[in-house]
Amino acid sequence: MTAVTAGAAGEGRPWGLWRRQVGGIVRLELRKVLLSRMALIGWGLAVLPVLLMVARVLVVVLGFDVLAEGERAIGDTAYAEVYQTLMLRLCVFFGCLAIFVNLVRGEVYARTLHYYLLAPVRREVLVFGKYVGGLAGAALVFGGATLATRLVMLGGGPGWGETAVRTVMAGPWLGHTLAYVGVTLAACAGYGAVFLVVGLLRVNPIIPAVVVFAWEAVNPFLPAALQPMSVVHALLALCPVPVSLGPIAILGQPPSGPVAALELALVTALLVALAMRQARGLEALYGED
Known about the structure:
The chain has one domain (15-288). The longest helix has 31 residues, at 123-153. Residues 1-11 and 67-74 have low confidence and may be disordered. The chain has twelve helices and no strands. Helix 4 (72-101) packs antiparallel against helix 7 (123-153) and helix 9 runs parallel beside helix 12 (257-278). The chain is 71% helix and 0% strand. The N and C termini lie far apart (49 Å). By secondary structure, the chain is mostly helical.
């Protein structure tokens, strides 16, 4: 009777077991993303915008910037330009490339993938756990960098402490900060899903990565019908402060915030599901690399 019951239970979906396995994989991957040698790439990219904002504050403190205290809108616009061009399009993009491509391919290069494949865990669960672990690490690194740049933005000038407090309490600073952090997390999820799929392809990841980067870079100049076919299109629609892209950019109707968030969530879910399907044929073929 016990054997029959156990067999019947095994035919179902052991959600509790899968949840525990995902939790264990997430803890392993989180340590790799944050503490391994490869983590230096992500940390280095995350520090770049923070250093840029610190440099700007130093310019203000040293008296080389004449930005008036009341011109906070100009400051917000300047931050939006730095965030969208440097943080989103470069730091988060290449940070997610380094993190998520190596979730599986890094194990192949290190010749450790077979340890995962020999474990009693489904390949779909393995890849999903790796994605969640990579996402958690990327969110901590780049979400923290986004928050740090917003905090640094408050500094500079005489009486900057009082000015910073008034800005936080009276203006849209807090709402914009939460929005920027949310956009960063969404970018990590979207680009993470893209590069998870790339990392599972049995091709050199540099080629698809260059294609994705070029597509994201030229997105504002594509026909309006093609612009939604990218991650950055939804991300820019979620940013609290719009940025002018110049006269040669093709003006399309941007989606509303909820629609952009839904589109990005659906695309991310589909890509993660595709990666989990690809994982069914995952093998430790070290000789091919």
